[in-house]
Each structure stands twice: as C-alpha cells, then as structure tokens.
Design a protein that fits this description.
single chain, 187 residues, mainly alpha, AhpD-like, 9 helices, globular
C-alpha cells in the first residue's frame, strides 16, 4: 500500500503552513489527519472551514452534532475519526451513553436522537435521496428542513476526513488511542 506522508511546518507546502498553525492553535498539536491533509492545502483548508461551520454555525446541540458525526464515522468504519470524535464528545460534555451507543450501534437514549441517527444513515446510504417516509419521520421527530441541510454539511465534512483516513491509513493520535474502536463487523 502507498504510504501517505504526515507533513508538518518543515515539510508541508507553503500554502499549508497557516493551516497547520490554525490546527495547532485549535488542538494544541497537529492532528494526524491534518498532517496528511496538509499535502493538499485546498483539502485541509476546506476541511477546516466545513468543520468550523458544522461545529459552530449549525443549529444542532452538542449531542446532536455527535450523533451526526459518529453515525457517519461508524457507517464509514473510520478507524481514526471514531476515536477522535469520542474525545471531542467528551470535551463537549456529551453523555458517554450517547457515545457508547453510537460506537456500539445500539439504541440511543432518546427517540429524537435515534431519529437523527436513522435519517443521517438514510441520507448517507441513499446518497442524498431519502424516501418521503424517511424524511417525514425525521420531521415528525421534531426536526426541521434546516436540519436536513445541516446534515448535508456534516456529511461533506466527514467524507473528506473519513476518505482521507482510509486512503492514508492515518495512525490514531496518541491522545485518542484510549478511545480506539473496532467496527462491529470485525468484532
């Protein structure tokens, strides 16, 4: 398998340098995902923008953001993002019961969060073509059209990270290794 380089401020293209600094300022370190993405400055820039928009500009609360992110990570079997977002969920004070249910693919603690997971999966699995019944069930659970569009934003962000981690086989950062995860199909 081709090895993808993990770059830093001494090896990355010049256009990636301010993006690397932004990552280090946000996380106190350069996450492995960002070190790989630095090889394509436009990818790292796009990812940072989408992450900020989803994390800071959507109407989802911390629990709901975690449901969208982890639902996609688990469905894509991303060995890097599931542990990373487990750590992010802890930092956002999301109940471990939510994180564990997402990681283990077991029922979530509320019907509304379960509806969010189901609809996120419907969007992912249908490539943005959920059935009328799936959409109506999502809206009946208390969500709005805005939430449908915000899920699309989350999907775009997670495709960038999950696919990068798949192709680069990005090692899980040491700080996140305590949250290591194995896909259900491999357990």
């Amino acid at each position: 398998m081709t090895k993808f380089e993990r770059l830093d401020e001494t090896t990355a293209p010049a256009a990636s340098l301010p993006l690397i600094e932004k990552s280090k300022a946000a996380f106190g370190r350069l996450p492995g995902l960002h070190a790989v993405m630095a090889g394509a400055p436009a990818l790292l820039d796009g990812y940072q923008v989408l992450h900020r928009l989803f994390a800071e500009e959507t109407s989802f609360d911390a629990d709901e953001k975690t449901v969208v992110w982890q639902t996609i990570n688990v469905a894509h079997e991303c060995h890097y993002c599931v542990p990373a977002h487990t750590g992010i969920a802890k930092a956002m004070q999301v109940d471990d019961a939510i994180s564990n249910a997402l990681r283990d693919e077991t029922p979530l603690p509320s019907d509304k969060l379960e509806a969010l997971r189901s609809f996120t999966l419907a969007m992912l699995n249908s490539r943005g073509r959920p059935t009328d019944e799936e959409l109506e069930a999502f809206l009946a659970a208390g969500y709005e059209q805005r939430h449908v569009l915000e899920i699309i934003l989350g999907l775009a962000q997670k495709v960038m990270s999950n696919y990068t981690n798949h192709i680069a086989d990005t090692p899980v950062d040491p700080v996140m290794q305590k949250f290591a995860w194995t896909p259900k199909a491999q357990r």
